[in-house]
Design brief:
The chain is an alpha+beta fold and about 325 residues long. It has two domains: about 20-125; about 150-285, Distorted Sandwich (Glucose Permease (Domain IIA)). The chain has helices at about 20-125, 135-150, 275-280, 290-295; strands at about 5-10, 15-20, 165, 170, 180, 185-190, 195, 200-210, 215-220, 225-235, 240-245, 250, 260-270, 270-275. Helix 1 runs parallel beside helix 2 (about 135-150). The protein starts with a strand and ends in a 21-residue tail after the last helix.
């Protein structure tokens, strides 16, 4: 019994004993030791695994938090990117508008330059190439001054005539048969042809004086000028009325001492008849010519009231 190991197994059928030798005892002891060691190692591994799992769970939570933070940051970046994209689109639109404005300004500058050139040509002044606001203001003032003068003094045609029958000057009177001064221009025209005022003014007379001119209209204008329209068929204005340049004042006819339908047109200054031809040809483009062509009017004193030209004074 000394070197034997007795193992007793008890069942419902009774107890039975088994004896093991020394080798078997060693095996059992080895098995018990291995089991114990395995138990402790397993417990150690289990504890370590639990710790690792807890660490992993903590890392997972950190990663989850970081992911959520990254998602928030990404959303923020996306919003900022959308705002930046919107700002860039707005800037691009503003840039396009500025480019269009620059093009439009360039076109306006070109148009202004062309208009200034045309205005300089119309006013018959040298082309300076200056398209500044001062140059425009100067030309505008000059144009307004000239237009005022052209509206104030007789100029242009009083009627759309067929032709000119007689001009101003000495001629053989068709009825008296002797040389007399023809004080105006005779325009051949059909009876009823409209007659127009050649300047702003007031109707000094409208009727028939019995002086051979038949029905006539006399207009009083600025600066001592008068115009007379004779041998009329009909007057459409009466004495005292104000009229403007280009207004219809009568219709041509064949009244008074006349050998055929026509308009007799006179220009007078201080009651003295002067040749109407220079005034008929006078316009804004040849504005200065009247001051050298018509010498019977003392134009030099007029410049003290209204400068007629910045470079050439009358």
């Amino acid at each position: 019994m000394k070197n034997k190991l007795i193992v007793t197994l008890t069942t419902v059928y009774g107890s039975r004993q088994y004896s093991l030798g020394q080798v078997a005892r060693y095996l059992v002891a080895f098995f018990v030791i291995v089991s114990a060691v395995s138990f402790f190692i397993s417990n150690w591994l289990l504890v370590k695994t639990s710790d690792d799992l807890a660490s992993l769970e903590e890392d997972h939570q950190q990663l989850t938090d970081q992911y959520e933070m990254m998602l928030g940051t990404q959303t923020l970046y996306k919003n900022e990117l959308d705002e930046l994209s919107s700002s860039l689109s707005k800037v691009a639109n503003e840039r396009d508008q500025l480019q269009e404005e620059n093009v439009r300004m360039g076109e306006l500058q070109l148009s202004l330059g062309e208009n200034l050139n045309e205005l300089e040509t119309l006013l018959d002044v040298p082309d300076t190439g200056d398209v500044s606001a001062d140059r425009l203001e100067t030309l505008t003032m000059m144009a307004n001054q000239r237009l005022f003068m052209l509206n104030s003094m007789p100029n242009g045609l009083p009627i759309q005539a067929i032709r000119i029958n007689d001009g101003f000057g000495m001629r053989m009177h068709p009825l008296r048969k002797k040389p007399v001064l023809h004080k105006g221009i005779d325009y051949k025209a059909e009876i009823g042809t409209p007659v127009y005022a050649t300047a702003d003014g007031v109707v000094e007379f409208s009727g028939n004086k019995g002086d051979g001119y038949g029905r006539q209209v006399i207009l009083l204008h600025n600066f001592g000028f008068r115009t007379a329209y004779a041998h009329l068929n009909k007057m459409v204005v009466s004495s005292g009325e104000f009229v403007h340049k280009g207004q219809k004042i009568a219709e041509s006819g064949n009244t008074g001492q006349s050998t055929g339908p026509h308009l007799h047109y006179e220009v007078r200054h201080l009651y003295k008849p002067i040749n109407p031809a220079p005034f008929v040809a006078w316009n804004i483009a040849n504005f200065d010519t009247i001051f050298t062509t018509v010498k019977s009017v003392k134009w030099a004193s007029l410049k003290n009231l209204y400068p007629l030209n910045q470079t050439v004074q009358p």
